[in-house]
Fold these 2 entries.
Entry 1:
Amino acid sequence: MLKFVLRRCLLVVPVLFGLLVLTFVLIRVAPSDPAAALAGENATVEQIQAIRQQYGFDKPLTTQFVLYIGQVLRGNFGSSVYSNRLVVDDLTLRLPATLELTAAALLLAIVFGVPLGVLAAVAHNSVLDHLLRVFTVGGLAIASFWFAIMMQLLFSMELDWLPLRGRLGIMTDQPPDWTGLYLIDSLIAGRIDIFLDAIRHITLPAITLAFGGMATITRFTRAGVLDILQTDYVTYETAVGYPRWIVISVYVLRNAIVTAVTQIGLLFGALIAGAVVVEYIFDWPGIGSYIVDAILTADYNAVMAVTLLIGVIYALVNIVVDLVHALIDPRVAEQL
Amino acid sequence: MFLIVRKFARDIPAVFGLAIVLLAIILFFFGELLAPYPLDIYESHIERRLQPPSSEYLFGTDNLGRDIFSRVILGTRISLTVSLMVVVLSMLIGVPLGLVAGYFSGWISEVIMRVTDVFLAVPQLILALALAQLFSPSLESAMIALTLTYWPFFTRIVYAETRRLKVSLFVDALQCIGTGTSRILFAHILPNSASPIIVRATIGMGFTILTAAVLGFLGMGATPPQPDWGLAIAESRRYLPDAWWFSTFPGLAIFIAVFGFNLLGDGLRDIVDPRLRRSR
């Protein structure tokens, strides 16, 4: 098992290295004058010259690349033109917001997606199954930014049930900054009022973000349950005379969940990508809205840092998923 | 062939998807003739701005008094052009790379597949956004950014198919009679892996309409006054909640188009992949 963990982690190294090369090309080689791009629009000639020396743009590309790797490893992504702060500080401040939102969305997607998938598989080829199929294909066809706006229009503007934007109301105190996750921090501090306000604020963005993921989970759970329903041991359990609901809830579901769990890695990428637009529309102060602001203000440092960060998170999640998969199903570990 | 058609015809959602796709194609070619106010791409009529849907303006009018129904119809051409170009160009890059990487082993295959891994290591939308900001906003830059991030999906599929077919008997036979490598790859292996490529391309059409709409929405694709669906939704946000029709209908158009391609792709996949067919 230890060997598997090590090998799986080693596999990520070339990918991360490639990602470094890619961002290096994007930030240093593609722009005609990277120093000017890095310094921002209002920089003076002296400032550009200073940046050129600081980052070593006057040196050969290979030397520059080695320097670049050194800077990235030290967490030095330069400062953001947009916020006038170090990119790395911005990211540490904003990452918890994104994690909280994606975790809430993932939870919603699983809680609703898995039962719907089981339902579709059990009612295989019935009207319900067809309806759920249309629903899942439809869920993946909705543009999340449009869905977000429609949710705002209905629940915030027309019905006035939920807040339009942000993580907390302007009148609400900030919870103490322990984990950066407002839902958890407010609970630890025993501030139920902040907790409820945070819940009210996260509801719409989380539902919007969860929608596509729920469709994916429903589809994979359905496929997984159908596959397992056709295995010999299910036929055996049925022949022995177990009631159908016991066969499904005890024997089928446990094995089908494995398939669904391994999809979470894939889903996570979709959630992060979805968070970009959802955060932007709901003014959610996470890394998704950060990258949009960075792009709109041509903030190279910030864009590349977020791209790298998401690549690293994505790789880590995939490692964890593979490890969980290997724990559940030892055959996977042997394949690698 | 007949069997395939009959099987497809029995799959009601897939037929429904095909109907939507056909409708989109009709709107693509004859949009100008079918739109009630085809000149509303460029002409504004301030005197009738932000009017709610009526028999005269089915979807209402926008902030410049342009008929939204006409602009949604004319937006079909933009959306389909972008997604078709992106999918075709991605295929032109991704398929040959997949064939080469799958057929040969050694460093060339390793290099291609590791580069593919890198591109797949970041969600496509994020990479496309990072790329698109290097260019000035236009439909062309959106297309380039989306193509540069979509080709690895084709490489992956073709690579797997080629690996599978490479060891099959007919390829052995072809090698024995001295058929040239490029002939084996393009005249024999490629046609045999056509089905998964077609399925991927169909689903890719829907997927690309969505991502292109995001780029348009964020102002990195189409530029005003182009009747782009994503751009229209971005323009409409300032007029909410009063002018609900302004954001609603372009979004519905995106949804219906993507829905059509996805249903069709799903149906095609069921026909192509016998393993999935069993579980349907």
Entry 2:
Amino acid sequence: MKRPRIGVFKFTSCDGCQLSVLNLEEELLDLVGLFQIAYFREAMDRPLRGHLDIALVEGSISTERQRNHVIEIRERTRYLVTIGACATSGGLQALRNWASIEDYKKTVYPSPGMIETLPCSTPISDHVYVDYELWGCPVSSDELSETLGSFLLDKRPGIPGYSLCMECKRKAVPCLLVARAEPCLGPVTRAGCGVLCPSLARPCYGCFGPKEGANIDSLLNVFRKAGFSDHDCALLLDKMNTYSYRKARGREGHS
Amino acid sequence: MKRLFKVDYLSRVEGETGITAEIQDGKVTVRAGVFEAPRFFESFLRGRHYSDVADFTARICGICPVAYQMSAIHAIEKIFGVEVEEPIRELRRLLYCGEWIESHALHIYLLQGPDFYGAESAWSKKEYLPIAKRGLSFKKLGNRILALLGGRPIHPVSVKVGGFSKLPEKKALLSLLPDLGEAFEESLREVEWAARLPFQDHTMDMECVSLCAPREYPMNHGNVISNKGINTPMGGFLAMLRESQVRHSTALHSKIRKDGLESPYLVGPISRVNLNVEKLPAEIREVLKKCGISPPIMNTRMGIIARSIELSYALHEAMRIIRVYEAPAEPSVRFEPREGEATWITEAPRGMLIHRYELDHEGCVKNCTLIPPTSQNLAQLEIDLRDFIQNHIGKPLDFLKKESEKIVRSYDPCISCSVHFVFIKETCNPVTKKND
């Protein structure tokens, strides 16, 4: 059987999700045997031309050049899968979407006029059709293997869309929200991380983005009752998945 | 006659970078350009609470998130006057060991290693596969340390101002010892392997800069020193730097200002080994002697040897810390936020990572400056490339191009790290930073 062709692409991001591919470690070499790696700039020299069966895309779209590039990738790809918070939800750098880009440029650069960038950092799905989205900051290596394995078996990947609370209860981790009135985003956040933060005694800060049908306002009411101001509540959501949480609240574009 | 070569998108480095070289009438101009899109960390950190800073800055780089967390929390603790207990200090060092192991193994075996075997990737040649496997097992061990202390290897979650959110069990730490011991023994052989790789002779006179602490190999503490007379506390070093925005290259370049002159310098494993060799364990120094390596190493191509030495050191240091570790009563100390300003530098796998913060009375960020190791090395890298091309000016462009790529890789640049990156088309003179 001909090995399916896979490409790994990067846009605006920290490289952490591509690194999760390399972090498959021993599985990585299996992966190389099962797929033909046609494009992976971080790990190999000569990219191959032509169509791709799967494109794993890391990073958000934040320049004109990237916008054109992602369309070009889409045109030659059968399944386009976004990996991680930047590609799926715009990333931390989407915080610029609620500020003035000119002010942002001036803060960092002495000659802001030299900088080419779009005013917003947006997820891949704002630009092209995305077949599958993997959340997380970074994406989990398990979900990556599950997705690639499912492709080979021609089935849908089993990635949960329910909340972190479900995972937390299953692992019998004490609830930080109920027991300590800490502002945990678990109730509105997708499962997938393996209950990292609550297991380490810190409230969830939303790496995996909003779960399906999240009722965010209701959770924020609970936080307010515990003494958090509106400003505090807004900042809790304005992190790596700011774009998606705001969208889920139906107040996209307003602070 | 004008000759030109261009590498649009360099492979096997972290992030997006390219090289342009122009040879005209025997004169060489090199531009190590970077086209990573800007992310404006210094802008959106403004107004954020101190407790967000470590999580946010970690997102600058997926390969060295711990470095960002370390520089950030130490700077903030300095502002608040927080003193952590010895076991916390040691655990942070252990976390850093995990990152050094993971990052160095990635670069040695998956990114740079293939260059010495004429391979295009770690998996493109059958004879390289066993070497890649060795690297992956080191990397896995580094990741295990990170996951044990921080929940996951990339963007770990337990580090906070004042300590950790939760401490690891001593038993879990001890369970790492057998594998660490075995890996350390292997790593000594790996230093020999790296030392035997073929290197072009390219000895340069350069200023090597690193932290230096009294009794330990530098990670989170120390003064900034160099082989050309710098010896200053962290804040003093920042005052010596000049960052400029250069149109041709796309990152802010850092240079040292001394006696009215601006000079490039080198940070990273070579500099650390050169300036701290006497703090390495005897076993490692013996291996160096056996292979005929006597620091200072003044050939940047030999970065892979320095990284192998540090990979071995980090394994050794991780074992030492785990053996002596006794859990403190509390995972973190109490403190009150207060207004202030501080600079802190820690040794990221790729070299000194400088953070400076100004916080208001509630502990929210008023201003910050983040200077990653890669932008400190860019000026040195350009000189290195220019010299190389100048010395081989008659050679075919293909050769020059390929070798230039290898030189860039030997610096282990981390492009995403550079929060200052800009995307620029044309070329012209450097512009100096306004607030300098």
